[in-house]
Design brief:
320 residues, alpha/beta, Rossmann fold, Alpha-Beta Plaits, 2 domains, 10 helices, 38% helix, globular
């Protein structure tokens, strides 16, 4: 089931088009990566989902019906920018924000006690927000974002200000929330976290969708049919055994093992490569190389920008 669907969203600001017919379909109980360079339009789309602003064109569907203002109460939004009152005490502010989400004072206190104990921050209750580090403030914002157990959670760069230990703790909590039934839209520049957490991604650049799909399928789509071979034997013998169906891209020695990266060409198959490897030495491992999301991100955005640059140059030439 698709929990949330933004269809052909267009948003203009003055002379700038922030979103140009962008569509996303967020499956229920998934972690959906919303990716793109700075200024791509991600935050504008997030604000539209939260009904902070409205689209100029397009529709929003939530739980198989048109989205309404009342739906914001079933959404939790953690913005990249800190939004806490600096002079207020942490506990007082967390309690106030929890009640704004619809919790009674009793339920809010109970939930806050649970989360403060889980994060080991009980001693922060009577501190002022301005006394906390950026990472500490982000923890408080995370708690007040999830405390009312929203159906849809939106995290915009949630790991900003965190050290690796606290980042890992937050990742664990995000996965736990999904396991408990939440659907999560996750916007970040950290492609390692995308691979670790997300089921599905959409990549936006300069207001347009460049790439979308289940993350496994996206990585497979950009695979270049490369494999890494590790064996105990002679690389030169392997080179002599391989034929035109393979190209050796790299070879080296690691811990007395021969490590070779090959690319299959024409009608080559993994079985053919393994047969050649058996002739050259003892097989230790044979793995397909799947591109990382960071490499795919750079490739797709760079190719799009280069295409636009060429189009602009050609148009300028034609107008001379």
């Amino acid at each position: 089931m698709i929990l949330f669907h933004a269809d052909n969203i267009v948003k203009n600001f003055s002379n700038h088009r922030a979103l140009d017919h962008v569509t996303i379909k967020v499956p229920e109980n998934s972690i959906y990566g919303l990716l793109g360079p700075n200024g791509a339009g991600k935050t504008t789309l997030i604000r539209i989902i939260n009904q902070i602003t409205a689209p100029d064109e397009g529709t929003l569907t939530y739980m198989n019906r048109p989205m309404t203002r009342e739906d914001i109460y079933s959404i939790g939004y953690l913005p990249e920018e800190r939004g806490l009152y600096k002079k207020m005490k942490v506990g007082e502010q967390a309690l106030y924000l929890a009640q704004l989400k619809g919790l009674s004072r009793h339920d809010a206190l109970k939930q806050l006690k649970h989360w403060f104990e889980k994060f080991g921050i009980g001693s922060w209750w009577n501190k002022k927000v301005e006394e906390l580090s950026k990472g500490m403030q982000q923890k408080i914002q995370f708690i007040v974002t999830v405390i009312h157990e929203p159906k849809l959670l939106i995290f915009d760069e949630p790991f900003t200000g965190f050290d690796p230990i606290n980042t890992q703790q937050l990742k664990k909590e995000i996965l736990s929330l999904r396991q408990k039934g939440a659907t999560i839209i996750f916007s970040t520049h950290d492609m390692g976290s995308v691979e670790e957490l997300c089921n599905h991604i959409t990549l936006i650049n300069e207001s347009r969708t460049l790439l979308e799909g289940p993350i496994g399928e996206v990585r497979e789509r950009y695979s270049e049919n490369e494999y890494e071979l590790r064996f105990d034997g002679d690389v030169n013998l392997l080179t002599a055994t391989l034929n035109s169906r393979f190209q050796i891209l790299e070879h080296k020695k690691e811990n007395n093992e021969s490590v070779v990266r090959i690319q299959m060409t024409n009608n080559g198959s993994p079985n053919d490569a393994l047969y050649a490897l058996l002739e050259a030495g003892k097989i230790i491992s044979f793995n397909k190389i799947t591109p990382r999301m960071n490499d795919i991100f750079i490739k797709v955005v760079s190719e799009y920008r280069e295409k636009n640059r060429k189009n602009v140059t050609a148009e300028a030439e034609n107008n001379k």
